[in-house]
Amino acid sequence: xxxxxxxxxxxxxxxxxxxxxxxxxxxxxxxxxxxxxxxxxxxxxxxxxxxxxxxxxxxxxxxxxxxxxxxxxxxxxxxxxxxxxxxxxxxxxxxxxxxxxxxxxxxxxxxxxxxxxxxxxx
Length: 122
Description:
This protein is mainly alpha-helical. The chain has one domain (3-118). It has 4 helices and no strands. Helix 1 (3-25) packs antiparallel against helix 4. The longest helix is centred in the middle third of the chain and has 26 residues, at 32-57. It is elongated and about 50 Å long.
């Protein structure tokens, strides 16, 4: 994985999580802004999938368990989709809070993926 790109993803995921959490606790329903912030995180995750495929071919293999990494990555890609579907089905302030929780959960998952890729020794 690319350290600066992972850091960028974590910062964007935390910013999205904080924005959605504040909006939800302020009583706002899901909007284009809250859903869009999570869509940005999803777009960065799709790019991460491409990076994870290309990186071992370019001489940057993972030091940890590759299966564990891919389970985290696939779960991380599916998490925003589930959160947005929930927000669209139940349009309440708590749906916006859930979008915030998804953003923070993604930040933690991205940090763990970075640790699996660079620090762990299989």
